[in-house]
Amino acid sequence: MCLAIPMRIEVMDGVQARCSAGGIEREVNLFMLQDQPLVIGDYVMVHVGYAIQKVDAELARQSQALHAQMQQG
Predict the structure, then answer these.
(1) How far are the Cα atoms of 44, 65, 73 from residue 9, in angstroms, in the given order?
(2) 27/11 Cα distance (integer angstroms)
(3) Which residues contact 29 (CB under 8 A, 6 or more apart)?
(4) Which position among 27, 30, 38, 59 has the lowest Cβ density within 10 Å, counted as fewest Cβ atoms?
(5) Dist CA 58 CA 68 (whole Å)
(6) 16-21 and 43-47: which strand pairing?
(7) Per residue in 8-58, pLDDT tens?
(8) How far is it between the farthest Cα atoms of the chain?
(9) Contact 53/63 with Cβ under 8 angstroms?
(10) Closest CA relative to residue 62, chosen from 49, 45, 39, 38
(11) CA 1 and chain centroid, separation
């Protein structure tokens, strides 16, 4: 089973970005989405350090809420 986390792009430098979710920041590779227009503030689904899909803010919020429910048991 694979798990991707929705993260917000905070800083971009070419195909590298610093993204955040839930107060945690990570370096994320944007290479797989280089054909899509990405800007600071966009949300991307991140799996093992790679952004694999751009998502809208509402889908990111719903996914974050679901992850929070799973952590509560």
Answers:
(1) 7, 19, 29
(2) 10
(3) 15, 16, 17, 49, 50, 51
(4) 27
(5) 15
(6) unpaired
(7) 999 999 999 999 998 999 999 999 999 999 999 999 999 999 999 999 999
(8) 39
(9) no
(10) 45
(11) 18
Contact 9, 42 (CB under 8 A): yes
Residue, of 12 and 63, whose pLDDT is higher: 12
Query: Do the beta carbons of residue 7 and residue 26 sit within 8 Å?
Result: yes
Are the C-beta atoms of 25 and 5 separated by less than 8 Å?
no
DSSP state of 36: S
For the record, the structure tokens of 48 come out as 């093992």
Q: What's the pLDDT score for residue 22?
A: 87
Residue 72 has pLDDT above 70, yes or no: yes
Q: Which domains does the chain have, with CATH numbers?
A: 5-72 (2.30.30.140)
The letter for the amino acid at 58 is E
Can you tell me whether residue 67 is helix, strand or coil?
Answer: helix
